[in-house]
Write a structure and sequence with these properties.
CATH superfamily of the largest domain: P-loop containing nucleotide triphosphate hydrolases
Largest sheet: 5 strands, parallel
Strand order of the largest sheet: 2-3-4-1-5
Bound molecules: adenosine-5'-triphosphate, magnesium ion
Number of helices: 15
Order of helices and strands: HHEHEHEHEHEHEHHEHHHHHH
Strand content: 5-15%
CATH topology of the largest domain: Rossmann fold
Structural class: alpha/beta
Amino acid sequence: MSELWVERHRPRSVSEMKGQKAVVDRLKAYSKSRTFPHLMFAGPPGTGKTTAALALTRDVFGEGFRSNLLEMNASDERKLESIRTKVKQFARTAPMPGTTFKVIFLDEADALTPDAQGALRRIMEQFSETCRFILSCNYSSKIVEAIQSRCAVFRFRPLDTEKVLEKVVEVASSEGVELEQEAAQAIAKVSLGDLRKAITSLQVAASLDSHVTRELVYETTATAPPEELHGFFLACKEDGFQPARRRMRGILDRFGLAGTDLVNQLHRELGGVTFLDEMQKLAATEAMAECDFRMVEGGGEALQLDAMAARICGLLGN
Ligand SMILES: Nc1ncnc2c1ncn2[C@@H]1O[C@H](COP(=O)(O)OP(=O)(O)OP(=O)(O)O)[C@@H](O)[C@H]1O
Ligand SMILES: [Mg+2]
């Protein structure tokens, strides 16, 4: 387990990326023309933003792309002065022979304060002759308009289950992991469109046993399998508070969940529960939302969860 599989299996070219079709098609056009404007990549974690930035620069500049690329993380460079100094130094030397510009990749740009973003805007202009910026962020709404208007904006989406499956199966076979079909599906389900999470879950499970089963996936990802969560709702409906509470405690212990994890996982599963009607689901959702909020605000976990179970029993019980 010396190397992280997410790094080893990071696509090297834009054309090897999974999903993100709208993004990938436009980036391929940039690779072909071997030039691009300032770019902004926005989207949730583990969906390919850093990957796309590295792959695009490699596609445009070839294997020696690193000498043409400055990588910075905005959350390490709180002071904009240090960004300015680094950019200045980097921009001073000529780009690689045969190329006309260098690339500055600024990760987590949404960590910069609005003031720092204002200054970044001037830096982008000052060096735009010789440098292209690629900014990456989780929330484009945290990037000031002035910067957004200087960039071509790309939105990354959580990956479809089938794309996650494809990648996980590829990684497993190249790492010699025996991955059961149901286990692959479980990984795709728990990763919620985050490929980093999916590949990491696979590696963690495989480090315990090279034969990866569905049970192993659920045990190593701090996720309760759907049938356990359905079992809790059924107990609320059929058996009453004490049995439902015992089930809830069992799930928490067995899968090592925090209270908020449990509530969120229950919420995600609720839609698929067949033995409750729409009104019951709406009411249960409210009880869960209230419990989540109280725990986040500092309410004691055991008490809040019991109160939620009690309320759901009251709503569903006969
Ligand atoms: N679209 C994709 N196609 C193939 N692999 C991907 C894709 N997205 C993510 N991965 C895999 O997941 C890992 C993490 O992806 P990446 O670093 O690009 O995420 P990110 O979008 O930059 O996330 P963050 O917002 O947390 O920085 C990569 O090393 C790669 O193995
Ligand atoms: Mg990233």
